[in-house]
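Reminder to self: tokens first, then the designed residues, so the page reads top to bottom the way the pipeline ran.
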């Protein structure tokens, strides 16, 4: 997988039909069972800085915490160990996809104008481009439309909002995590909180490219990097990693 391209998350390369059928009803969040009392976000600002020492200033801890309010179930479903594992799994994948939060916009500017596809009835706004932006490199007009509808934002009309407002950038990443199953059977959130293991999280994010590959394949090695990130963060959060075999 190539870092910083709009192909970072596998569901974003499988075509609009996959995402349009795997997303919840536009403009509404799915229902989740959360703890009765909102739990603290299970990573401190100091730990965040340790994980991302060379992050771009755009990606602040405060904006991440603010973004979590869009999905109260994120990092707040199940017992304490499960909640910590979800935060660890999410940050491990963000770490991998964004190269430690060192990119906001897709770096290959030569393809910035290539992500308009209106075959699903989602027209591109005049003069707007839908290249990869944010922690997951949200890409394509239909994905901006879906994320915007779920978050109550006009991301189709103003895609630059993702690279202009840090909390919005984080919200798009959490939206994908919570709502989109990609090539997997369930969204990453469901995979981790239901004990399906970290491998199933990877399947939902980049399964087409990384799952069921031989050990010598570079895609398998990429998945091993994700797993190492996950193990490192679970150790930091003082929680067992539970199942983390490759998909």
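Designed residues (247 positions):
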């Amino acid at each position: 997988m190539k870092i910083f391209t709009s192909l970072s998350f596998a569901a974003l390369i499988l075509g609009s039909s996959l995402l349009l059928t795997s997303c919840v009803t536009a403009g509404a969040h799915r229902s989740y069972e959360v703890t009765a009392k909102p739990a603290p976000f299970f990573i401190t600002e100091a730990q965040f800085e340790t994980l991302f020492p060379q992050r771009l200033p755009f990606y602040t801890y405060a904006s991440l915490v603010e973004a979590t309010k869009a999905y109260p179930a994120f990092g707040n479903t199940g017992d304490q160990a499960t909640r910590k594992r979800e935060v660890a799994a999410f940050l491990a994948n963000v770490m991998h996809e964004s190269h430690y939060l060192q990119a906001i916009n897709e770096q290959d500017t030569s393809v910035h104008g290539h992500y308009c596809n209106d075959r699903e009835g989602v027209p591109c706004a005049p003069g707007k481009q839908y290249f990869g932006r944010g922690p997951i490199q949200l890409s394509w007009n239909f994905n901006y439309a879906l994320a915007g509808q779920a978050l109550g934002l006009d991301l189709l009309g103003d895609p630059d909002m993702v690279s202009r407002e840090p909390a919005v950038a984080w919200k798009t990443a959490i939206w994908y995590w919570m709502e989109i199953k990609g090539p997997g059977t369930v969204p990453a959130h469901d995979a981790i909180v239901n004990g399906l293991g970290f491998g199933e999280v990877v399947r939902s994010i980049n399964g087409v490219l990384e799952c069921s590959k031989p050990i010598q394949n570079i895609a398998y090695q990429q998945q091993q990097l994700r797993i190492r990130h996950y193990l490192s963060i679970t150790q930091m959060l003082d929680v067992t990693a539970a199942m983390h075999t490759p998909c």
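The two ends are 16 Å apart (CA to CA).
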